[in-house]
C-alpha cells in the first residue's frame, strides 16, 4: 500500500519537481493547486517523466470550505507538503496585502483541514528570507530570525510561527520547515522547469528568457552592495537536489524519526555566488554573451545569504550535489526545449 502525500502548489516549479521525486520513491501523490502561477499541462509532463499521472484537484486554498472538502476526500494521507504561496519579493513589497492574504489564509485553512482529518505530518516550504539581513555567515538554523524586508519573507516568518503555535497546542502534530536558499535549474529530462507567469521575478528564468529573445535584456539590481563584485550573493541550489530533501523529510516524519515535534533545516549548497557569477557561468556554458544592464537596487534585497547545511546532512542524510555550471546548463536546456515545443505547436496550428 503506497503512502499518500498531499502536495499543495504541486504544479509549481519546486512542487512539480518534488512530485516527481515522490512518485519515483513509490508515494501516491495528490496535487492541490489553483494554477494561479502554474499550468495543468505540468501533470502531463510529470506523466511523461514518471509514467504516473498524480491525482489533481483545482482548489483555491483561500476558500475554507473547498479546502476542507478536498482534505476530507484524502484524509488517509500520511503527510502534507505545503508549497502553495506567492513568492516574488519585489511584487510583495508593492502589494503586501495580497501576499499576506494568499500565503497566510491558505496556510491556516490547510492546517485546520489537516487537524480536522487527523493527518499528522506537515512539511512547510519556507525560505532563507526569514533570517532577514544576517549578522553572521554562513547562516545556521540557530541564527535568529528577523523581520524580513519584504512581505513575502515576512509571510514565511509568520507562517513558521503559526506552525509552531499549532504544534504546541497539539498532541500528535509533527512538522518540518525547510528553509530554501535560491532554487534554480530544471529536471534532466528537459520536460519540466521554472516557467513563471509574465515577467520573471527570479534571476535564472530572466537570464534564460533574455538569452532566448523573450526579454530584451536582463536587469541586474544594484552593483554597490558590500560584496566581491558589488552584486548580491545568494546560495543557488539545484531544484532536483531540493526536491530530494522533501522526500527525506517525508520519510523522517512518517517513520517518526524526529528529535522534536517541529524541526527546521536549511537547504542550500553552503556556497555563495553573486549575480555576476551566475551570468558568467551562463555565458561560459552557452558560449554566448548575455545582454544585461546594471540598474538601481530592488527594494527588499539583502547583500548576502548563504547556508550552513550541516544539520540537514546529519539529520536528513541530505546534501546538494550539483555545481553552478550544471544548474545553469539544465535551466538553459529546459528553456530551449520548451521554446522549441511552443514553436512547433504554433507552426502546427497554422495548418
Describe the model.
It is built from 11 helices and 14 strands. The protein is of the alpha/beta class and 351 residues long. It has one domain: 3-Layer(aba) Sandwich (Rossmann fold), CATH 3.40.50.720. The model has no long low-confidence stretch (mean pLDDT 95).
Can I get a quick summary?
This protein is α/β, with parallel strands linked by helices. The protein starts with a strand and ends with a helix.
Protein topology:
Blueprint: E1 4-8, H1 13-24, E2 28-33, H2 41-50, E3 55-58, H3 64-73, E4 79-82, H4 89-94, H5 96-116, E5 121-127, H6 151-168, E6 174-180, E7 182-184, H7 203-211, E8 218-221, E9 233-234, E10 236-238, H8 239-254, E11 262-267, E12 273-274, H9 275-286, E13 292-295, E14 304-305, H10 310-316, H11 324-349
Parallel strand pairs: 1-2, 1-4, 2-3, 4-5, 5-6, 6-11, 7-10, 8-13, 9-14
Antiparallel strand pairs: 9-12
Helix pairs in contact: 1-2, 1-8, 3-5, 5-6, 7-11, 9-11
Amino acid at each position: 500500500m503506497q503512502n499518500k502525500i498531499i502536495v499543495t502548489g504541486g504544479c509549481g516549479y519546486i512542487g512539480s519537481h518534488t512530485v516527481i521525486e515522490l512518485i519515483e520513491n513509490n508515494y501516491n501523490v495528490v496535487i492541490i493547486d489553483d494554477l494561479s502561477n502554474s499550468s495543468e499541462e505540468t501533470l502531463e509532463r510529470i506523466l511523461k517523466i514518471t509514467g504516473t499521472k498524480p491525482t489533481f484537484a483545482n482548489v483555491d486554498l483561500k476558500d475554507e470550505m473547498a479546502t476542507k472538502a478536498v482534505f476530507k476526500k484524502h484524509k488517509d494521507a500520511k503527510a502534507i507538503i505545503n508549497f502553495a504561496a506567492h513568492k516574488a519579493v519585489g511584487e510583495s513589497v508593492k502589494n503586501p496585502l495580497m501576499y499576506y492574504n494568499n500565503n497566510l489564509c491558505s496556510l491556516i485553512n490547510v492546517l485546520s483541514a489537516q487537524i480536522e482529518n487527523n493527518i499528522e505530518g506537515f512539511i512547510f516550504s519556507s525560505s532563507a528570507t526569514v533570517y532577514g539581513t544576517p549578522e553572521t555567515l554562513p547562516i545556521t538554523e540557530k541564527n535568529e530570525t528577523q523581520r524580513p524586508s519584504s512581505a513575502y519573507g515576512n509571510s514565511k516568518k509568520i507562517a513558521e510561527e503559526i506552525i509552531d503555535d499549532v504544534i504546541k497546542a497539539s498532541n500528535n502534530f509533527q512538522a518540518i520547515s525547510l528553509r530554501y536558499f535560491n532554487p534554480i535549474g530544471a529536471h534532466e529530462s528537459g520536460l519540466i522547469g521554472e516557467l513563471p507567469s509574465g515577467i520573471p521575478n527570479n534571476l535564472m528564468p530572466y537570464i534564460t528568457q533574455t538569452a532566448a529573445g523573450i526579454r530584451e535584456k536582463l536587469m541586474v539590481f544594484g552593483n554597490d552592495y558590500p560584496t566581491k563584485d558589488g552584486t548580491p550573493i545568494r546560495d543557488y541550489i539545484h531544484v532536483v537536489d531540493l526536491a530530494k530533501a522533501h522526500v527525506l523529510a517525508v520519510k523522517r516524519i512518517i517513520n517518526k524519526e524526529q528529535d522534536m515535534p517541529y524541526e527546521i533545516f536549511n537547504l542550500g549548497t553552503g556556497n555563495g555566488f553573486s549575480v555576476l557569477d551566475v551570468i558568467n557561468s551562463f555565458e561560459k556554458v552557452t558560449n554566448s554573451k548575455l545582454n544585461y544592464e546594471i540598474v538601481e537596487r530592488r527594494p527588499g534585497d539583502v547583500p548576502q545569504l548563504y547556508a550552513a547545511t550541516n544539520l540537514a546532512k546529519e539529520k536528513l542524510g541530505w546534501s546538494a550535489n550539483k555545481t553552478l555550471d550544471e544548474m545553469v546548463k539544465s535551466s538553459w536546456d529546459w528553456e530551449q526545449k520548451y521554446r522549441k515545443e511552443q514553436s512547433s505547436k504554433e507552426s502546427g496550428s497554422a495548418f
